[in-house]
Fold DNA ligase (ATP).
Amino acid sequence: MKAFAHLVKTLDGTNKTNARVAALAAYFREAPDADKVWAIAILSHRRPPRPVNTRLLREWAAELAGIPLWLFEESYHIVGDLAETIALVAPIKQGPAGGTPSLARYLEDLIVLKGQPEEAKKAYLQKQWQQLDYYERFVFTKLFTGGFRIGISQKLMTRALSLATGIDPDVLAYRLMGGWDPSKTSFRSLVLEPQEEERDSRPYPFYLAYALEGEPEALGDPADWIMEHKWDGIRAQLIVRNRNLYLWSRGEELVTPSFPEFQALRDALPDGTVLDGEILPYPRGQVGSFNDLQKRLGRKTISKALLKNVPVILRAYDLLEWQGEDLRQQPFLNRNRLLTTLVAPLAGDPALPLDLSPALEIPGWDAVHKERGRSRDWRSEGLMLKKKDAPYQVGRKKGDWWKWKVAPLTVDAVLIYAMRGHGRRSNLFTDYTFAVWDEKTDGQRELVTFAKAYSGLTDAEFREVDAWIKKNTLERFGPVRSVTPTHVFEIAFEGIARSNRHKSGVATRFPRIVRWRKDKPIEEANTLADVVNLIP
């Protein structure tokens, strides 16, 4: 743990990429193999489930420090990070006998602790807090809260691991994909000599597009490009190898159990096939909303009713493996022709949840502008522009794949509730709930909540709104304050759909603040009818 805590401190103390890579590479050269595996797991978001909720952590830390809980909570709001607050207030008695245990030992303890009674968890945590120094205690507690984020991307980690091992970064990216368990995996089998039998289920690293910030004309000759719609679902790879089917999300989560209907493709697709595409809700034979798809997420078992009410399809747009051969270095146009040959005959079968994303030739850039304008009619977020000769690369690379999303929908809404933010904004009210006018048949109208947002304002604007909230609070509901309806903000969002879970009857996708409309009185904010009219 001491070496890993030192690594985290080094990474946290610099924003220079080369310095971060060098620190990671040094750790991967020198740390014990078991610690290396756990470090890779932590940095790629494969942490064990949290064994203790944060309420108990706060209570036990306050008790150990000998301070009332309210004082700990106030300190937490000022510091802005729970692990750092605990590291600051917990007293140190003496270091552990025999030295600080390894990172692997602490993570193994965390797994075992999950099934222990609360008293055992409390005794263990309070003992460790007293034995570790400040930064070790900070890192140790971060592991227990499950909120371990230090700004290290998968790409940067594989680059450092490549320096330490001499293995190509793209090879490492592939080896680290999938559902390996750090408590059961050795560094040798994961990184140095991966077992061949693990290959069956392993996906390829996803290729990600950059946002097109200017006009598409800047990309040159339109004849060099293919145009597709950017579908709003879950990016996924569907794998058929040795007559087994696996479904992986872009977040490297095996989601096969959540979508049992895809098992029908196990026998329809030839062995050695890997499709890249989008899982889309498909009620009544047409693309539904992302809100529909959310009903299917995170479920290990799917009821017959849910299967019937929220059917899904995979809309395929790339072929990464064909008859067991890795096609990623072939030009996109070649891969797409093979994909069409494979999928087109199957897409017409109503028993198979598969169809083909149309790849359109571009006669001129005017056609791209027109097609983007029809995106919402197609239930898409905009367009993808892919170079015909582009290989399928690893991670986010600039130049060959671009996403050109449609302009967001916007609504003017009234601020009515606020909560404190997180991290460096934990002492400011920066998380807001907004409302629009619901006009009644009797001529009366009331404000009804429709979206929450916490980004989009400058730091100075957040401080100004925070000061106003503290002076204009009407009621308090735990951490939430209701405020006098006074201020109008322009809210942008990517999509909107009907929802029975919200009082307004609508749910927005990716809402954020565009600007503070100081020029507009609340009477001129949008109505619920205006919002509903935006639903496609």
Q: What stands out?
A: The first strand starts at residue 207 and ends at 208. The domain at 2-145 is CATH 1.10.3260.10 (DNA ligase i, domain 1). The chain has a mean pLDDT of 88. The radius of gyration is 26 Å.
